[in-house]
C-alpha cells in the first residue's frame, strides 16, 4: 500500500483526508445502499462524477483498504470494487448521514431502509453489514 503523507496524526484529520469531499461519501453510498460495484455503475449515478475524479477516488479507497478490486467472474475485462471489513465499519456512520439527511431533506430517501432504521437502527445496521459481507463472499476466490 502506498504511504500518503498526512497533515497531522489527528484521527479526525485522517478521516477528513479520506472522506472530506462529497465524492467519497457518494461512492460509499452507492456501494452500501445501492448495490453498485463497477466503474460504469458509479458513473451512472445522478451526480455525474467524471471518470478522472472517480478513478482518483477509487484508487484512494483501494490504497486505504476500504474497498478491494477483483476481476468480474462474468467479464474478465471488467473490475468490481468490493467493500472490505474496514469499509463495512463505516456503515453506522453512513446510516447516520442517511437518517439525518432524510429528516432535513424534503425529498426524503430510500423509504424501506429508512423505515427499518426507524424501527431498529442497530438491527438495520447489522443486517446491512451482513448483506455487504455476503455480497463480497460471492466474489472471493480464496
Automatic annotation (TrEMBL):
Keyword Transcription: yes
PROSITE patterns: HTH_HXLR (PS51118)
Pfam families referenced in this protein's UniProt entry, alphabetically: HxlR
Gene3D superfamilies, A to Z: Winged helix-like DNA-binding domain superfamily/Winged helix DNA-binding domain
Keyword terms of this UniProt record: DNA-binding, Transcription, Transcription regulation
SUPFAM superfamilies for the chain: Winged helix' DNA-binding domain (SSF46785)
Keyword presence, Transcription: yes
Domain (HTH hxlR-type) ranges: 10-109
Name of the protein described by the UniProt record: Helix-turn-helix transcriptional regulator
Record organism: Dyadobacter chenhuakuii
Taxonomic placement: Bacteria, Pseudomonadati, Bacteroidota, Cytophagia, Cytophagales
Amino acid at each position: 500500500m502506498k504511504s500518503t503523507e498526512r497533515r497531522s496524526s489527528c484521527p479526525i484529520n485522517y478521516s477528513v483526508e479520506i472522506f472530506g469531499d462529497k465524492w467519497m461519501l457518494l461512492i460509499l453510498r452507492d456501494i452500501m445502499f445501492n448495490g453498485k460495484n463497477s466503474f460504469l455503475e458509479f458513473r451512472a449515478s445522478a451526480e455525474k462524477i467524471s471518470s478522472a475524479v472517480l478513478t482518483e477516488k477509487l484508487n484512494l479507497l483501494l490504497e486505504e483498504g476500504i474497498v478491494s478490486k477483483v476481476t468480474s467472474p462474468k467479464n474478465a475485462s471488467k473490475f468490481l470494487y468490493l467493500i472490505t471489513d474496514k469499509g463495512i465499519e463505516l456503515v453506522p456512520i453512513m446510516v447516520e448521514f442517511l437518517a439525518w439527511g432524510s429528516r432535513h431533506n424534503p425529498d426524503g430517501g430510500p423509504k424501506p431502509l429508512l423505515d427499518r432504521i426507524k424501527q431498529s437502527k442497530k438491527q438495520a445496521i447489522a443486517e446491512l453489514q451482513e448483506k455487504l459481507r455476503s455480497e463480497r463472499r460471492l466474489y472471493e476466490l480464496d
